Predict the structure.
Amino acid sequence: MRTRPSDSDRCPCSSGSTYGQCCGPIIAGAPAPTAERLMRSRFSAFAIGDAPYLLRSWHPSARPDVLDPDPHTRWLWLEITAKEGGGPFDTEGTVAFVAAYRDESGRGELRERSRFVREGRDWFYLDGDVG
């Protein structure tokens, strides 16, 4: 695992907030209030290499048995480009994003439209269309 940010560090998800006010509490177990906040916390988890959180936040119907984030990939920033539903009173939502990274072959971008579902008070990542 990479170094977890302190609560006063800027959050890896590019929200402009501190880790302690943004993704930190969600990664620690607080429910995400929206699909976008879950998306941001998952990006932060990728950035710090927190595979257990990524698995916990993945819907059981689509969750892989094992997740081993590439230690050579450094996630740089996240931009939310669109969202539909996914609010505090919704049960489904989509979040489109661009995530920049750097790996052994250079710099790149991941573009995805992710689907989320809420069960009870918890949002889960379901799947996504890359492109």
Observations:
- The longest strand covers residues 106-119.
- The chain has one domain: 19-130.
